[in-house]
Amino acid sequence: MAYVTDLGAGQRLWIESRDRLTILTLLSASAGQQQSQRMSVETGAWAAPPQAFRTAGGVVVQVETENGSRFVQVQGSQMQSLNGVPVLSGAAVLPMQETTEDPMPPMEPMKPMEPMKPMEPMKPMEPMKPMPPMNSGHPLQMGEMQMGELKMGDMEMRLNPMQMKMGSLEMRMGSAERQSQQRFCTQCGGEVQMGDRFCAQCGHRVGELSHS
After folding, report:
1. Within a domain: 24
2. Which residue of 40, 139, 166, 180 has the lowest C-beta tally within 10 Å?
């Protein structure tokens, strides 16, 4: 059971009995906005419909219950329960109407959020450019080879006559006639050329080698 009354200045007051409670809801509308205040008072069951009076101090609501009269004062946007009996002589009675309207309708459901736009696919990465081929440069030369002669570092080889030299080591292979004419110093082992009388290495006297 609920009743509503118009307080003026954009205010309306709902009075509702629920179980053993009296619930008062004050709605104030101004500048396109609406505010609400609510309070509940334990009064017990109603014995008669509520009444509202406009007094010099504001609006007074009287509720008749099985335990006697209870009073609530509405002043501006504030509501408070009164312990004593207010002075109602000369107060104007405000019209009260029974209603089934809910003073605080349920809030509208929130609109569903718009689905997020799918992310744009990532652009494929550009393939890496192939590395330029390395300059081959000059071919690796193991040695220089001429007709009948090979040189590689400190090694030297000749084919005619057959001769190989590596560092201080030298080996020759010629004809038998030339080999028979080769001599070596008996003192130091150095080679003695044809016609030499002394060793060019140590000066030791050797026999003269002549052509045959």
Report:
1. yes
2. 139
What residues form DSSP beta bridges with 6? 12
User: Is pTM beyond 0.85 here?
Assistant: no
pLDDT tens string 7-36 = 988 899 999 998 889 999 999 887 778 888
Which residue range(s) make up the domain with 83? 2-98
Of 105, 107, 106, 103, which is closest to residue 13 (Cα–Cα)?
A: 103
Q: Which two tokens stand for residue 151?
A: 């040189």
For the four alpha carbons of 192, 193, 198 and 202, in that order, the dihedral sign comes to negative
Q: How many domains does the chain have?
A: 1
Q: Give φ, ψ of 152 to 5 degrees.
A: -145, 100
Quick check: is 93 in a domain?
Answer: yes
Q: Tell me if 191 is assigned to some domain.
A: no
* Tokens (6 digits) for 10: 């954009």
Pairing of strands 78-82, 33-42: unpaired
Pair 202, 192: CB distance under 8 Å: no
Compute the Cα dihedral for 42, 48, 50, 52 and give only its sign: negative
Residue 28 belongs to a domain: yes
In the chain, the amino acid numbered 101 is: E
pLDDT tens-digit series, residues 61-84? 999 998 899 999 999 889 999 988
